[in-house]
Amino acid sequence: MTTAACSMNLNPLIDAVKPGPLYRSAIEEVAESVAPVIAENTSYQDARVFERLLIPDRVIRFRVEWVNDQGGVEVNFGWRIEHTNVLGPYKGGLRFHPSVTEDTLHFLAYEQCFKNALTGQPIGGGKGGSNFNPKGKSDNEVMRFCQAFMRELQRHIGPSVDVPAGDIGVGGREIGYLYGQYMKITKQRDGVLTGKPLGLGGLLGRSEATGYGTVTFAEAMLKHAGDTIDGKRVMISGSGNVALYAAELAMEKGGRVVTMSDSGGSVSFEKGMTSEQLRELIDFKEVQRGRLKDWSGKGVSYHPEARPWSLVDADVALPCATQHEVETDDAAALVDRGVKVVAEGANMPCTHSARTVFHMKGVLFGPGKAANAGGVATSCFEMHQNAAHDSWTKDRTMDKLTDVMLEIHEQCISNAPMVNGAVDYGVGADRGGFVKLADAIVAMGV
Ligand code: NDP
Ligand code: 2IT
């Protein structure tokens, strides 16, 4: 924590909410960035905005009970954290993964508030999910779980109240089952979830939006530094929704994708992935739900249990899998491998100390709050489409997505200090989001 942050005495406020380790790391990052802003603004101090943003409006926790294919009863936790609706309805994804705890969802909900503020769209922040593990489950089991989850969640959400979407383990299939159950229970077809299959009111381009937005942000960072993505070697982690479409746009823009990964290991591409290999991989991952260890191709090497960061030389890194997947040693390896720009497709994939390595070495670092905001911004376009009973073209979505990403880049620049000759996008994003939230909280009264 910086001197400025300590002088604002933010530490006791953080300690008082007893955050888990992930939530604490997310808050401390923001505290460090925004302490000088609070120090300069007495109305933020008087309204206690930092403190009020630490405690969610409410945490909803419920039991999810469902029947597996053998007829046995299964029980999971379900959560929805409604963090703040000061800028609009609670908005954020649902994560289904065995590692999910309340701490995971607190950190994601908190980050979501700042990210959503940066998009300039009228959306508040929230997050939800379950410790359910979709891996190895049959399609019918996933459907029954989603139906059971929605049996509880439906009483808490609404198109102007709380609008969930996907995240790790929750894609079009799960959103379809969740929305189907919501429609049956409530009789409403009001677009309460985003990331819906097209036939259920989904938006053309939402699947691509997060990954495309991340590449657009990385490209803006490069351009601001007088460079371009064309010809760059791009390291990507993950091979899910964000990673696959980040790879697609990076390749369209002339980048060479040199790695992808899943939780079992990584693949590297000697000469960069070909568009044919990418099409195959999208089908392999999204339709066949395969594992990278079972996927092979010309010029492809598989590295069991390895993260991508030390495997090959690269210019740009896009971590698109999960939180804290880039630790101090990984950051040092990325620097050694030649990486000059990191843009986070995932939420908080880089630890605080990894970020410090980047700053010390002059690597440009685009935080997830800014770099992956294209997904939720496009979810908001889906809300517009549904509320207006309209049907957007993909071009309209993509044009608006590009505008939003470039506008977020501008906000980061205008709020960011320079560190070691590089724009500190992390601080810029935190301050940009914080000021919008803080002004609205002050305006709202107590
Ligand atoms: P998916 O479930 O589609 O893909 C997740 C990918 O990350 C998979 O390849 C998965 O591998 C890998 N992964 C997950 N957990 C781990 C782990 N513990 N260690 C190593 N690899 C792991 O999720 P998304 O692509 O939607 O989400 C990826 C990240 O992007 C998350 O941080 C999410 O919060 C963030 N994000 C997502 C948005 C969206 O619109 N979907 C929007 C903004 C951010 P495996 O299959 O082996 O588990
Ligand atoms: O982390 C995120 O921004 C998401 N998972 C997407 C949220 C959304 O509401 O589209």
Mind explaining what this structure looks like?
The protein is α/β, with parallel strands linked by helices and 446 residues long. It folds into 3 domains: 56 residues, no CATH class; 134 residues, 3-Layer(aba) Sandwich (Rossmann fold), CATH 3.40.50.10860; 160 residues, Rossmann fold. The strands form 3 sheets. It has a 7-stranded mixed beta sheet with strand order 9-8-7-6-10-11-12, with helices on both faces. It has a 5-stranded mixed beta sheet with strand order 1-2-4-3-5, sandwiched between helices. α13 links the parallel β11 and β12. α6 packs across α15 and α15 packs across α16. 52% of the residues are buried. The structure holds NADPH dihydro-nicotinamide-adenine-dinucleotide phosphate and (2Z)-2-iminopentanedioic acid (2IT). NADPH dihydro-nicotinamide-adenine-dinucleotide phosphate (NDP) binds next to α10.
